[in-house]
Amino acid sequence: MISQEALVEPAKTRLRSLDVFRGITVLSMILVNNPGNWGKIYAPLKHAEWHGCTPTDLVFPFFLFIVGVSIAYALSGAKQRPEQHTATIFRIIRRGLTLFALGLFLALFPKFDFETVRIPGVLARIGVVFIIAALIFLKTERRTQILIAAFLLIGYWALMMFAPVPGIGEANLQPTTNLAAWLDNKLLPGHLWNSTKVWDPEGILSTFPAVATSLSGVLVGQWLTKKDDPGNKIAWLMVWGVICTCLGLIWDLHFPINKSIWTSSFVLYTSGLAMLGLGLCYWLIDVKGYRRFTTPFLVYGVNAITVFFLSGLLPRILSMIKVNTPAGEVDSKTFLYESFYTPHLSPINASLAWAITWILFFMVLLYAMYRKNIIIKV
After folding, report:
1. Where is the Heparan-alpha-glucosaminide N-acetyltransferase catalytic domain (predicted)?
2. Which pLDDT tens digit goes with each residue over 86-95?
3. How confident is the model at residue 13 (pLDDT cuts 50, 70, 90)?
4. Which regions of the chain does DSSP assign to beta strands (E)?
């Protein structure tokens, strides 16, 4: 996330629970992004085909929610010092563009085909959302932030449900003919997700409700930084978590929960669950002091962007290294997977074991970095 890698939260105000929640989230990202066989995956580790929400669909919105919480912690000091705003704005933009560039590099590697490179993506969306949410936090107060988030959600709902789609007809929520898909194909033809080619799950229009996801984290972060009784903070965090989750489910009846187009109901539903998840971590770790179990997740949380980038880069490098076998030349990923996993496990468990191996590999690497206090910043 945007933790230490982008804007380091001051040590005196850091929440271990936030680092742990961040770590759980990025670890889950690696788990769902690195199966041994994309055709053999347990149902909870798959995205919903279209409408609906699986546990996997929660990962990215949780990530953006934590970005918002981190913004509130990282920029609270600068917000109170207007003379520093110009310099802070330049840092925000530089770091957001760096995240965008890292995502573009992953999309280009290893072929560097600029004619068909996917421009949207996870890191690209994080970078754009970070810039917008951070600037909103820096320049506005809480009431305005709430109004902006509400405007984004209601405005997106109105566009998607009522605005005619040029060249297609009435508003609709079908994968290839909705307004967001039309805009992606109009502005970024040939540069969209390879699996669809005509729309992108991190597309242009759906980035606006994604900003609202991050703003929900900004609002929670401001609440947590208040000088107040921890029990009171947890109580209100849980109350609002339940309220947002229920509102999302109610809105789902008219505007279906859908990650691929990041519907407004999806924002409320996932933000509510993120509040409940963070509230639980905050109570267990920062209030009750249960910390012994947290180290594996903490090491992921303090170097989240680093490990996410490496988890996208290293498997591709592995696929570039060729190995000669009796059956012919194969890439080293296939060689390792078929030599050590598929002969000993069922296809679906072999696929899961491969993903878990990556998690354990990175955990060892990150633990060594954590012990040496190595935190790579964007």
Report:
1. 14-227
2. 999 999 999 9
3. low
4. 322-325, 328-331
Give the type of residue at 307.
V
In a domain, 77, yes or no: yes
Q: How many domains does the structure of the chain reveal?
A: 1
**How many residues are there in the chain?**
378
What's the CA angle centered on 74, arms 313 and 261, to 5 degrees? Answer: 55
Q: For residue 357, give both structure tokens.
A: 């191996």
In 3D, which of 167, 168, 159, 90 has the Cα closest to residue 131? 90
C-alpha dihedral (280, 282, 284, 290), degrees to nearest 10: 150
The domain in which residue 15 lies consists of: 11-371
pLDDT (tens digit per residue) in 338-357: 999 999 999 999 999 999 99
Dihedrals phi, psi of 328, to nearest 5 degrees: 125, -175
Angle of the 142-162 helix axis to the 179-187 helix axis, nearest 10: 90
Please answer whether residues 148 and 136 qualify as being in contact, where contact means their C-beta atoms are separated by less than 8 angstroms: yes
Q: What is the pLDDT of residue 378?
A: 76
Whether 376 is covered by a domain: the verdict is no
Is residue 6 in some structural domain?
no
Q: Does residue 323 sit in helix, strand or coil?
A: strand
Could you tell me the two tokens for 124? 């690209």
Residue 358's alpha-carbon distances to 109, 286, 320, 332, 336, in angstroms, are 20, 29, 17, 15, 13
User: What angle separates helix 16-33 from helix 347-371, to the nearest 10 degrees?
Assistant: 140
What CA–CA distance (Å, rounded) separates 237 from 63?
Answer: 18
pLDDT, one tens digit per residue, over 125-146 is: 999 999 999 999 999 999 999 9
Is 378 contained in some domain? Answer: no
Residue type at 265 in one-letter notation: S
Q: What proportion of the chain, given as a percentage, has pLDDT over 70? A: 96
In 3-state terms the chain splits into helix, strand, coil percentages (rounded to 5) of 65, 5, 30
Q: Is 143 within 8 Å of 218 (Cβ atoms)? A: no
Q: Please tell me what DSSP assigns to residue 10.
A: P
Return d(Cα 10, Cα 134) in angstroms, integer.
16
Across-strand partners of 329? Answer: 324
**Crossing angle for the helix pair 122-139 and 59-79, nearest 10 degrees?**
30
SS3 169: strand
Which tens digits make up the pLDDT trace of 147-160? 999 999 999 999 99
